[in-house]
Amino acid sequence: MDLGVDFGTTRSLSAVADRGNYPVVGLTDDLGDAHDWFPSVVALASGRLVHGFAALVAAEHGAPSVRSFKRAMASPEFGPDTLMRLGPAEFPVVMVIESHLRALRDALATAGADPARATNTVIAVPAHAHGAQRFWTLECFRRAGFDVTAMMNEPSAAGFEYTHRQPRTISSRRTRLIVYDLGGGTFDASLVSVDGTSHEVLDSLGLNSLGGDDFDGVLAELALTNAGLTAADLGDTDRDQLLIACREAKERLSPQTRRIALDVGTHEVSVRVDDFYAAATPLVEATLEAMSPLLGGLDSATDLSEVAGLYLVGGASGLPLVPRLLRERFGRRVHRSPYPAASTAIGLAIAADRQSGFSINEQLSRGFGVFREGEGGRTLHFDPILERTEHVPQTGERVVVRRYRAAHNLGLFRFVEYAQLDPAGNPRGDVVPFGQILFPFDTDLQGRENDPALHIERRDAGPEIEERYVIDPNGIVTVQITDLDTGYRLEESLS
Ligand SMILES: Nc1ncnc2c1ncn2[C@@H]1O[C@H](COP(=O)(O)OP(=O)(O)OP(=O)(O)O)[C@@H](O)[C@H]1O
Ligand SMILES: [Mg+2]
């Protein structure tokens, strides 16, 4: 059996490979009802973490619960020590996710798709996930008992699902596909070039903290305003209830719906759908803005003639406003997936299935660079090392090497990952610290680099230094700095 698992902000879906078909695994809740998904909810019941359907039941009985905890990994500060609050207690996010994935593994085993029996298991991360997010997603899956063979970017997997289902729309003239993935907590867009079953990501962009949850928030704000209240007027439980009610109402909207009825605490209010759409339009515009570089700028009459389709996936693209606004811009080439929430999981199962022959050439999606201190620590200079369009190896590793003569006694390297560079060549916006190395170029200081009394000074004729940047097939970077004269080496990685 080959398995694809899409761990989502609101729901996880899994699919298996079955002789060229890729059915979604049906899971059973505590009442015996079947669902295509496992809810991304954790609750604290009798001092124990419970997950998924059991967490929904516990939360209904008043247990403290948290949803959308996958979002915590997108934070630039996220690491193994990051905590999340659950009622009276705090837990490391990675521990909660590992425990959640173990519960998902058990649910899959009960459903007859035991991950322990899978030959290949492929998982996914948002396309613009940073290194720590990639590393810990993989690590949590492994600790939870999944034998992960590969990790892909979510929209790339959705691209597989598209080409598998609609191979004929890709022609020799129209070889490109844009995947627009609006999930519960993230937005990703990828430009994919397709040649038969070979796929290559040409570029990928997104927003790590925009998704369906934000549409629920917009609707909740309108409901509060109509009730003459603010969020501070509601208790935690009423606020959670309101957000849940907003999500359910949003998911039920059809193009014909005019008004949405909601309970705000004890008030009954009604929100006009037109008002909701007007308030939510900036969210959709933010996605268009984020993906505009894929189209060469939205305002220019870009040559879309090579694009076979703009493929809408992710549960939140089910909101009628989303295809409407996209069709206003891009016309008939906008296609909604018949399985917006399952497309990624199906694509992962296609990737796990060696018989499918599907392959992908992925990109890093985030730039990687280093701030170096110069002039005795008085200046800070940014050096971009890996561009976001740098290819990720399908097997083995990809190595980028820099060599130079050191001009200081010590070098302070602060590594960051970034989404964009400003015109001056400095990272801007979404910048995530990766780690730092204080490297002693002066041989007398080697092994003593942690001495707080040391400071950076200029030196002539320093040793020859090599920086090695190693990218693994999961898009995770490791840095090594070596003094080639003495062989002294320091390394920075996320493990
Ligand atoms: N019919 C619908 N109309 C509007 N929104 C919907 C509909 N169905 C689901 N959603 C929304 O889609 C979102 C979940 O989408 P999806 O299942 O693709 O996300 P996820 O995989 O959990 O998240 P992510 O990919 O961001 O980690 C939720 O915000 C949900 O309310
Ligand atoms: Mg998703």
From TrEMBL:
Entries under InterPro entries matching the protein: ATPase_NBD, Heat_shock_70_CS, Hsp_70_fam
Annotated keywords: ATP-binding, Chaperone, Nucleotide-binding, Stress response
Protein's UniProt keywords contain ATP-binding: yes
A family per Pfam: HSP70
Statement: the UniProt record of this protein carries the keyword ATP-binding: yes
Family statement: Belongs to the heat shock protein 70 family.
PANTHER family cross-referenced by the UniProt entry: HEAT SHOCK PROTEIN 70KDA
Name used for this protein in its record: Hsp70 family protein
UniProt lineage: Bacteria, Bacillati, Actinomycetota, Actinomycetes, Propionibacteriales
